[in-house]
Amino acid sequence: MNPSSLMVHLTAGQSNDALLRLAIDLANRVKAIRVIGISACQPLPIYGSPDAYVPQDLITRDLELIEKELKAAEKSFRSAFEGKVMDCQWRSTVVSYGTIADYVAEQMRAADLLVAAVEEQASLLEKHRINLADLAIRAGKPVLVAGRGVDKLDVKSVVVGWKDTREARRAAEDALPVLTLAERVTVVQVAAEDDLDDARTSTADVAAWLSGHGISATARAVVGAADDSTELEAIARELDAGLLVGGAYGHSRLREWVLGGVTRDLLLSPARCSFVSH
């Protein structure tokens, strides 16, 4: 089933032009009927003792700047999608409690797929930054992460990073509408030498399942000479993949999500787009 409703996360306070062009391209390809723009900011943290005096004008100026940045993000979103989809909506807030990822994950009840830009390096004081790792686990919906400056979804070659787990199955299932757009899909598993035969069987099964959905797919199982993430990235480069699909793995620790290296690198890769599902 094609995603009929997309949500696009815009980072306030910076240009989102490339992300918006990619989102428009994707909406056209999957024939989405609704696109929801979303953005949020957190007030600057105030450090010091609970009794420390904070000038009211400092708080006021910060909130005024946030409001200005959110309005600018909304304007760019509406200008980009005007006349391009049947239903165009906007949601934004100032996050006083919790995180931006909490807010966006909550709003994902209204959409099938979230489109967001790769995380940029940010200081601890960054009030616009969204934790994509946290969001990928919490959203309950797939997340398409756009590489830095990427403004069109390149699906000539797609790599599905496989591991015989629930998360990988969920990601492959969620990615079907995008994979049907691909010219070539390669199901790749990086395995230990003792597990190579099982990996070949597993990836062949997945490739056959994708072929049953009309997707041109082949299987590839390799022995990892380095860590899984490095090996998968090398294969993606070799195949000139514009999109990597993978499952998000994590567990809770003090309300933080600690993800495996492959998931983390999928989310942080600036070179291409990634499709992640948990």
Secondary structure layout:
Elements: E1 5-9, H1 17-30, E2 34-41, H2 56-81, E3 87-94, H3 100-107, E4 113-117, H4 132-138, E5 143-146, E6 157-161, H5 166-174, H6 176-179, E7 184-191, H7 196-211, E8 217-223, H8 228-238, E9 243-247, E10 250-253, E11 256-259, H9 261-268, E12 273-277
Parallel strand pairs: 1-2, 1-4, 2-3, 4-5, 6-7, 6-9, 7-8, 9-12
Antiparallel strand pairs: 5-12, 10-11
Describe what you observe in this structure.
By secondary structure, the protein is of the alpha/beta class. Helices cover 37% and strands 24% of the residues. It has a ten-stranded mixed sheet with strand order 3-2-1-4-5-12-9-6-7-8, with helices on both faces. Strands 10-11 form a two-stranded antiparallel ribbon. The protein is globular and about 65 Å long. The two termini are 18 Å apart. About 3% of the residues have low confidence.
